[in-house]
Write a structure and sequence with these properties.
Structural class: mainly beta
Shape: globular
Largest sheet: 5 strands, antiparallel
Number of domains: 1
Low-confidence stretches: 1-23, 42-56, 324-330, 436-441
Number of helices: 2
Oligomer: single chain
Strand order of the largest sheet: 1-14-13-12-11
CATH topology: Methylamine Dehydrogenase, Chain H
CATH architecture: 7 Propeller
CATH class: Mainly Beta
Amino acid sequence: MPSTESCMQFGTTGPTTTVRVDAPRPSPGARRVLRSLCRGCLAVLALGAPGSTAAGEEPLALPTLPGYQRASTFDLNNRGQVVGAAFAGEPGEPLLQAVLWRWRPWRPATVQPLPIPAEMENSEATAISRSGIPVGFSFLSSGSFRALVWQRGPGGDWDAVELEPPPGFTDALAAGVNSRGEIVGWAGNAGEVVGDDAVQRAVLWKRGRDGAYSVSELETPDGFQSRGAAINERGDVVGTAFRTEFEDGRRVLRSEILVWRRTLGRSGSCHRSPVVLTPLPGLPTNQDPAISLSGDVVATAAGTIGGVPTTRPLLWKWNRSKKHHWPKHSRQYGDPIELPVPEGFASASARDINAFGRVAGTVLVQEGATTLSTRGVVWSRRRDGGWTVEELDSPEGVAFVSTIRLNDLGWIAGRGTPPSAGESGALLWIPPRKPCMWKRP
């Protein structure tokens, strides 16, 4: 394993074109006002979304590519762009093909493939930024991975730019991106194992003014492997640190949620040492984290209780009063808040949180260790501090439905397995618009 220092960066190049426009930047105070106005506009647009998403609204079945039978969503933004992958294709087609959907209220949903490097065989688009930058990875059947970012070329077509791993690593995967072009993911070495775990490290790519990307390895707790999962607009990164342990002669995957807070200041290109979030007792595996604009984190705690596999949705609130020196403000992240599991369901998982603190996830109907069905849900905070859980409507005949991502307008991307006849399995829930208050009924 290479020894890396905090915030060591390595330059890479890619076929990108940038245009620099010299314009005066607004002052920090003006930027804060603009951000507040933008969030206020989003709040007005999303007024009816969380409470009415499930109210008899069938999810929209997104189309798959010609020659493919199925598709799966992985992320969406506020522009109506959804990314994922098409699979189960005809002979001669890639096993997995990265795709981009576009949905607009006045047009049917469209789908297009995203290109991959000539030497690779398959690809997935795992995330898309608020500004419309898709990222993902491509891979060979032998198991070699390459992290990718897709950029618009001079003709308006998408070009795939390969993101190099840090020196000493052979593979890389991109998992999250923000509007600044900061990309988070992980790097590893094919076939290299430490203890019982493959070597993996959370990494961060940044795009310079010349269009080239530099990569830095994020600090990982001793004895653990790590993965970067998501990054917010501020530049805070959330991920996991994991290792295999043995308890009572059994192999147990211990996984912790990490948050790398971005440093402040003009030269703040590095990230602080990771904050390890307090886990839920009895459930050692914490996975699938997501982070909001304000720094709140959701994830899923998994384990075995009474011999039955169990998952619980967790929320860690970012303490915004850390500047005070009172004892109750001594921790930036407190103990996890366990979101309620609706009656009739045995387990639940949290997958995403938006700018307004609403959480999207999945609930499970179980009989012992067997999962009979799953449903998508949304948690919303009540004024009294409690939580409201609303079940999303599912396509007819689909037993297994799960949510993946939630945007600020209340749109939810998910998937259904098995799909209805003639449908791909890629789903999009769009809340109905409320009538204008100045219009007569």
